[in-house]
Batch of 2 targets.
Target 1
Amino acid sequence: MIRAYHVVFGAYGFWLPNDPRGSWSEFVRSWELVCFGKAAKVSTRRSLAADPHDRQLRGAAKGELKYPVVQFTGPQALAIAQGFRRGMDESAYVLHACSILSEHVHLVVARHARKVEQIIGHMKGRASQQLTKEGIHPLASHGKPDGTYPSPWADGCWKVYLNDDRQVANAIRYVQENPIHEGKPRQQWSFVTPYNV
């Protein structure tokens, strides 16, 4: 029985559908990206981030995106956290771990009546609203005629279903240690609820 989800979702441009290391995408929607290859669909549950790949090819593909690649600053990460808190308060989501990094987010989310994809869509939406409210949306210079901004998030998310206490504990540890791998301190968010076995 599913107890929680380990979810990873990226900022715009973080992990392209045809990333040489693989992705969870089944097709490439952007014509500018198609020339860099088809979607590289994989089904592995392990992280592919450290796998060797053609960095030059990946960089060239990112250069063809419609908007600049998003990299969140510290103040933007704090705004994202405030957006997450709002989403949690609205729908009683429980997070057991959270790391907001410059290019992507890791969460361990307790099972909920909503599908995990709906939860992540809600959290991304509230985070985007908070970035706009604080005047620090990373794509504010690319505003649309209707006054809105492009999403700072990549489509979709990568998720692993966690079915027992050991899997949940391992995912929490992974999320907590993720900033350390990027040379940053661990993150402690007041809205994270410890997982009790």
Target 2
Amino acid sequence: MTRSAFRFSGKHVLITGGAQGIGLEVAHHFAREGARLMLFDGNAENLWKAQAELQEIAIVHVELVDVRQKVQVMEAVEAAEKNAAIDILINNAGIAFERSFLTIEEDEWRHTLDINLTGMFFVAQEVCKRVSVGKNGVVVNMGSKNNLDGETGCAHYNVSKGGVLMLTKTMALELARFNIRVNAVCPGYIQTAMSMEIDSSEFVKDFVDHYIPMNRTGKVGDVAPAFLFLASEESSFMTGQIMIVDGGQLAGQKPYNSLI
């Protein structure tokens, strides 16, 4: 296959939180499909490592950005635009950690919402202001199955991702007249390098046994193709939608083995 046959040849893709986990996997997928990349991340070490990996197969630039800081976001988006006009935004930056509702501290609450929701808003607004009318821009936001289904110990995360759902729908409604499509990918439990450091094998087995009908955890490679589909012409009549990638977790209560 020649490079010109790739789905994203000539496209400039901005990925926030692109230096690790799902964001980095998405970056690799876009790179293999011919895209030019700009990665935003708040971790310098991970950012330079990701650039070194990706520049072997794609043109890639990086910016160290705290998405909570509007001025940093504005300056970074402007720098990205100097390399090439942005065609696709993958709004992926986010955090998650457990804390019971009654013990969440104010700074933990604000930190989670500032990154997962406000930071997403800052980046999307700055990018979409610059997309020319008629250019067919695309935004794909990182949601979660927690957009639709609460989870104990995650009130701050649940609220932030519920906000992402409504942000996605509102953006889709307002930006359609500018030919900008906005959708979201909503993963369930996905094992990343970070989660594998935190979650014990016993926890993972118990979670799968109780909640995931497909009887395995998700991998970053299971999620990345959904972002590419929603960014591609294959989904050209989709906007304001969510794509759930959760191994069947939201389908309902998993049956006991003795009943099937």
